[in-house]
Structures are given as structure tokens and as C-alpha cells.
Specification:
Layout (H helix, E strand, L loop, with lengths): L1 H22 L5 H15 L1 H16 L1 H10 L4 H14 L7 H21 L3 H4 L15 E2 L3 E2 L5 H18 L10 H21 L4 H28 L9
Antiparallel strand pairs: 1-2
Helix pairs in contact: 1-2, 1-6, 2-10, 3-10, 4-5, 8-9, 8-10
């Protein structure tokens, strides 16, 4: 299992980072991480796009879900059938959120392992034959931030980016602000930034920089999704009897 992890994830990411550092990023590790993040998110764009779109649609059809749950509260079978019909109508997969977790966690674990172990001679043995090892790797971003240590600035920026990403995902509806579902949706906007701070606070800022850039990439992706949904897929409010 360890060998499989090394071959599929660790080695390609390590080689990609070293290649970008030596040949593209002017031997700036921070720039290399940013470029590597852009490459990763570009390759995985279709998966993230589909998952983000599903999550956004799930937010927008919440009034319909709530009405179905109310109308069929005494019949679980009819409730499940009505929900499945609703998901099919709007082409929504309610479990798509797990895709993001399955995609993000292995990459984060790999990057954590990469920066925890450092660029030692043993690590350099993982380089492919066509990539020459740099004479030295400087663990800095623009000569200002040591990527081996924690950076409050990067953690703060990552949390702010996570907050704006959550705000963009919220549906712009004029529902009752006292509605429990609306309250939960609004509170979730703050859960992401808090988790970001908790997770990144004790990690090397190299991981935080990856998180920040991928959050910024996600904001751009969310803006595209919102524009497309607002223009082509208006969701009406459920009719009340």
C-alpha cells in the first residue's frame, strides 16, 4: 500500500514540484507550489466543477426538499421517492460532496508528507531519470515567508478565501431569515474558515499556501457556476397549498 501511494501520488507530485522549482519558478518554492496547485486544479477541474455545481444546486433546491419532507413526514417511502425524483429533475447527486473530500485529502496528506520529510538526499532518490536534482532548495516564498514554518498571514488569507467561497455558494433567495435551514446554511459559511484555521495553524505554511491557492481557484470556479445557473437554470420556489 505504501509503495502504491508513493508511485501514484507522492512521486508525481514531488517530481512536478522539483521540476517547476528548477525550470519554471526561478527557484522560488512558493511560486512552484502555486504553479503546482494550478496544474492539479486544472487537471481535476471537471471533478471539482461537477461537485461544486451539485452542492450549489442542493443549496438552491432546499425549499423543495423541506416541502417534500413536510408533505411526506408520515411516509418515509414516499418521501424518499419524491426526493429522488427531485434530484433526478435537477440532475443533482446528493453525495457529490464526498468527491471533494476524496480528491483533497490524499493530496493534502502527500504534500504534508513531502514538506515534513523535506528535500533530503533520500527524497531526491524519488526523482525521475529525466529530472536533475537542484543543487539546493530554498524554502521561501518571494524571500519573505519560510515555507517550513507556520505563517499566520497565509492561514488568515486561506480562511478569508474559504469564507468568500462559502458566501458565493449560498443561494441569493429572500427566504425567512429565521428559517432553521437558512440559519444552518449561513452558519456553514463560518465553519469552513474555522476548520481552515484549525487544520493549517500547526502545519508548514507550504501546505497553507496550497490551500489558499486552491480556495482562490474554487472561488473562480464558483463564480462561473453561479453565472451559468443564474442564466440557464432558474429554480422556482415550491408552490404552497
Amino acid at each position: 500500500m505504501s509503495e502504491l501511494f508513493n508511485t501514484i501520488l507522492y512521486q508525481p507530485l514531488f517530481n512536478g514540484l522539483v521540476f517547476l522549482y528548477k525550470y519554471v519558478a526561478f527557484e522560488d518554492l512558493g511560486i512552484a507550489i502555486i504553479l503546482l496547485t494550478v496544474v492539479i486544479r486544472t487537471l481535476l477541474y471537471p471533478f471539482f466543477y461537477k461537485s461544486f455545481k451539485n452542492q450549489t444546486l442542493m443549496q438552491r433546491i432546499q425549499p423543495h426538499i423541506k416541502k417534500i419532507q413536510h408533505d411526506h413526514k408520515d411516509n418515509r417511502e414516499k418521501q424518499a421517492q419524491a426526493l429522488m425524483a427531485l434530484y433526478k429533475e435537477h440532475k443533482v447527486n446528493p453525495f457529490s460532496g464526498f468527491v471533494l473530500i476524496l480528491l483533497q485529502l490524499p493530496i493534502l496528506i502527500t504534500l504534508y508528507k513531502l514538506f515534513l520529510g523535506g528535500f533530503t538526499a533520500e527524497a531526491m532518490s524519488n526523482l525521475y531519470d529525466f529530472i536533475a536534482a537542484p543543487q539546493e532548495i530554498y524554502h521561501s516564498f518571494l524571500g519573505l515567508i519560510d515555507l517550513q514554518t507556520r505563517s499566520i498571514l497565509i492561514v488568515s488569507l486561506a480562511a478569508i478565501a474559504q469564507y468568500f467561497q462559502g458566501r458565493l455558494a449560498l443561494p441569493k433567495t429572500a427566504g425567512d431569515p429565521q428559517d432553521p435551514a437558512a440559519k444552518v446554511a449561513r452558519s456553514m459559511v463560518f465553519v469552513g474558515p474555522v476548520l481552515t484555521v484549525v487544520l493549517l495553524f500547526s502545519l508548514p505554511s507550504a501546505v497553507g499556501l496550497y490551500w489558499l491557492v486552491t480556495s482562490l481557484f474554487s472561488i473562480g470556479q464558483q463564480l462561473i457556476i453561479n453565472k451559468q445557473l443564474n442564466g440557464t437554470n432558474q429554480i422556482t420556489s415550491p408552490k404552497t397549498p
